[in-house]
Amino acid sequence: MKQIRILWLALLTLLLCSTAAFAAKPAISSDSNYLDINTGRYILEGHVRVEVNNRIITADKAQVSIASLEVWGQGNITVTQDDITFTGDSCYVSGSDKEAIISGRTKFDRTGLNIRADNAKFNWDTKIANFDDNVVLTQDGSVTNLDHLRYNVVENQIL
């Protein structure tokens, strides 16, 4: 009887682990793609869309490592989660670190708020976005130039 309980527990644990791993796998689409066996990355081109849980990354080109849940994107980048959207020229997204780094003409828009910068870093756990270099904040019609800006997207508050 004890062996049956241990086997049952082992099977249940295996099932839960495989379900969790399956839930984290990204849905990937593009016009063309191939697997680079040297790097273990999928190379995607044209209308790239990578979706993991409720995060969506779109780009002209991207490389995706499913093993590490990392995405390197180039060209017409959007990084979206729920009502949060960043745009830029390139991105690096780390699923394990739960953060996205968007570079080149980075934009973030909300009603009454517009932030432009050379670079942005967003963490999905803390919901904090850091904008760096040539930051232009437009809030309720007022424009402010800054070197750095921290913004809490949940509280809609500049820190």
Describe the 3D structure.
The chain has about 160 residues and is mainly β. It contains one helix and eleven strands; from the N terminus they run αβββββββββββ. Strands 1, 2, 3, 4, 5, 6, 7, 8, 9, 10 and 11 form an eleven-stranded antiparallel beta sheet that branches. A hairpin with a 2-residue loop joins strand 5 and strand 6 (about 85-95). The longest helix is centred in the first third of the chain and has 23 residues, at about 1-25. The protein is elongated, with a radius of gyration of 19 Å. The termini are far apart. The relative contact order is 0.10.
Question: How would you summarize what this structure contains?
Answer:
This protein has one helix spanning 2-24; strands at 27-29, 32-36, 41-52, 55-65, 70-81, 84-94, 99-110, 113-123, 128-139, 142-152, 157-158.
Give the topology.
Layout: H1 2-24, E1 27-29, E2 32-36, E3 41-52, E4 55-65, E5 70-81, E6 84-94, E7 99-110, E8 113-123, E9 128-139, E10 142-152, E11 157-158
Antiparallel strand pairs: 1-3, 2-3, 3-4, 4-5, 5-6, 6-7, 7-8, 8-9, 9-10, 10-11
